[in-house]
Amino acid sequence: MPRSSFSRLSLCAAALGALAISALTAAPSLAAEDAVVIPPPAMDAQPANGIQTAVLAGGCFWGVQGVFQHTAGVVNAISGYAGGNKTTADYQMVSTGTTGHAESVEIKFDPKKITYGKILQIFFSVVHDPTQLNRQGPDSGTQYRSAIFTTNDDQKKVAEAYIAQLNAAKVYRKPIVTKIGPLEGFFAAEGYHQDYLTLHPNQPYIAFNDLPKVENLKKLFAENYTEKPTLVSSRF
Questions:
Q1: In the β-sheet with 179-182, what is the strand arrangement from edge to edge?
Q2: Are residues 52 and 108 in contact, defined by beta-carbon separation less than 8 angstroms?
Q3: What is the domain range of residue 208?
């Protein structure tokens, strides 16, 4: 494994440690966050032509990317950074938690095959726990915050309405803390972060935290699941 990948493991999964690896051996079905069965959004985006873009942040981008790479209708999902500027869109800098960036995934999708609302339903149900403030699983810091970066007013309205709907339905034990704001820029992460879940399925962090999310996608959203992932590397 390249040095950069070791650095990634130590920073993204520092809290996992030897204790969590031991827990993985004893209870491999245990995941950092459990999936939550939630209703679909009552309001969805207006029909649109052509490939659309959604940018979401839900903790370590390895798992977020991995889930959406197995989502039918997604034509590309790239790990990267959003919320800060281009000069600080670097993993080592983002990991300090001082850049304003969140680890994010840019999702290109075909609205004729999957809607923006369905993407948000998957995001809130199986991708992460939207009630955790500035953390997900073993990772903590503002770079791991839950956020939706909208690309237009329609997305903003759908996201705001859906969060209000889910809070009113009390599907979680605590209020949703997901922040909604306009996308001001998305910057792709370093190459060694792309397709990480597929390339390193036996890495302890992936096995413990992220593969269960893909299994939950398959179980809870069978009609939206595709066995073959849409990889970044396959597009070059």
A1: 179-182, 146-150, 52-58, 102-109, 74-82, 186-188
A2: yes
A3: 3-235
Query: What is d(CA 81, CA 113) in angstroms, rounded to the nearest whole number?
Result: 26
> Who contacts 206 (Cβ-Cβ below 8 Å, separation ≥6)?
62, 63, 66, 196, 197, 200
pLDDT tens, residue by residue, 193-219: 999 999 999 999 999 999 999 999 999
- Determine whether 60 is an active site residue: yes
Both tokens assigned to 189:
């992460």
Backbone angles phi, psi at 51, to 5 degrees: -70, 135
Q: Quick one: pLDDT band at residue 34, thresholds 50, 70, 90?
A: confident
The count of structural domains within the chain is 1
> How much is the pTM?
0.88
User: What CATH number is given to the structural domain containing 64?
Assistant: 3.30.1060.10
Residues β-bridged to residue 77: 107
CB-based contact 83:55 (threshold 8 Å): no
DSSP letters, 119-162, are: HHHHIIIII--TTSTTEETTEESGGG-EEEEESSHHHHHHHHHH
Q: Which of 38, 54, 60, 214 is catalytic?
A: 60
Query: Is a pLDDT exceeding 60 seen at residue 12?
Result: no
